[in-house]
Amino acid sequence: MWMVYKLAFCVALLVSLSDQVRKKELSLADRWQQMSDLSYRSYVISLDSERFKSLVRSGPRNYSTVVMFTAMDARRGCAICREANDEYMITATSHRYSKSYPNNVFFAMVDFDKGSDVFQSLKINTAPMFIHFPAKGNYRKSDIMDIQRTGISAEILAKWVESMTDVQIRVIRPPNYAGTAGLMLLMALFGFLIYLRRNNLEFLYNKTMWAVLALFFTFSMTSGQMWNHIRGPPFMQKARNGGVSYIAGGSQSQLVVETYIIIVLSALTVSGMILMIEAASTKADVKKRRIMAIVGLAMLALFFSLELSIFRSKTGGYPYSFLIH
């Protein structure tokens, strides 16, 4: 009888162990199926604390997850979270419509108001932040995207995802007709003005007008406006001390507001140069010319010095050695 009890106990133990193995396998399959179902409902899966722990952090997993940690509520004061969300959605949508759509990479999002304890557990104190959670093991520092250096455009996000998962994403942006419509409206307005002044087109020979337009174009190009259009950097960002940073650190990045600052400083510097030239060439009163020259020299020295100070703060090697010797 004792042998029968032992045999029954062993059989029950084997059945229990087999059930645990089966549950583990089902858990892996169910976890992937749940992520797949959620991604078909929305290209970016919205996760709360419970879903994040069970689907992203818990194992076993056979898929990678790219997660954006954000704070979309206006009360949180995240100036670039909305822009980052738009670029992230473009990346996730492009991933879905790629020719070789892989089913082992998912895009997700955790909002601070839905998962504040997730932010605390990962020690995240800024937003937005992009982290790659690999299929095996925990994430490392190299799995965190450095958006202050690279920016948050969809093209940059796609390259970063490729470097993390070996999944190529060809970014497909929705058609934007605002630029075309604006150009056509500007051309129509210019044509209308030409029609109204058809009997007097002397303004087309106005050198001052063409000089101002040329300077405006030059300021736009030299300030990095085209770089902003290509890389899509944030307008401004939070500083490490909790304030707002208007100048990006490092010579490989910049902010949109930084571009406007450089445009204004360049315009004021050139204005000072123009005042000095006018003071030397005009035939006005000597006292007036002296005031113009002093004001122009002061503007040139002040605003050009501010430009150089910004350049020095972004370029560690300045002043260069050949300038010193």
Question: What integer is the average pLDDT?
Answer: 80
Termini separation comes to 100 Å
Q: Considering DSSP H and I runs of 4 or more, what fraction of the residues is helical?
A: 55-70%
Structural class: alpha/beta
Per DSSP, the total helix count is: 12
Report the radius of gyration as a whole number of Å. Answer: 30 Å
Query: What can be said about the biggest beta sheet?
Result: 4 strands, mixed
| Widest sheet, order of strands | 1-3-2-4
Using DSSP, what is the number of strands? 6
> Helices and strands, in N-to-C order?
HEHEHEHEHHHHHEEHHH
DSSP strand (E) fraction? Answer: 5-15%
Low-confidence stretches: 17-26
Question: Given the C-alpha coordinates, what overall shape results?
Answer: elongated
If you had to describe this structure to a student in words, what would you say it looks like?
There is one protein chain. Strand 5 and strand 6 form a beta hairpin. This protein has helices at 2-41, 49-57, 81-96, 116-121, 147-150, 154-165, 178-196, 207-222, 225-231, 256-281, 286-314, 321-324; strands at residues 44-47, 64-70, 105-111, 129-133, 237-238, 244-245. Helix 3 packs across helix 6 (154-165), helix 8 runs antiparallel to helix 10 and helix 10 (256-281) runs antiparallel to helix 11. Mean pLDDT is 80; it is low at 17-26. The protein is elongated, with a radius of gyration of 30 Å. The relative contact order is 0.08. The protein has 325 residues and is α/β, with parallel strands linked by helices. It has twelve helices and six strands.
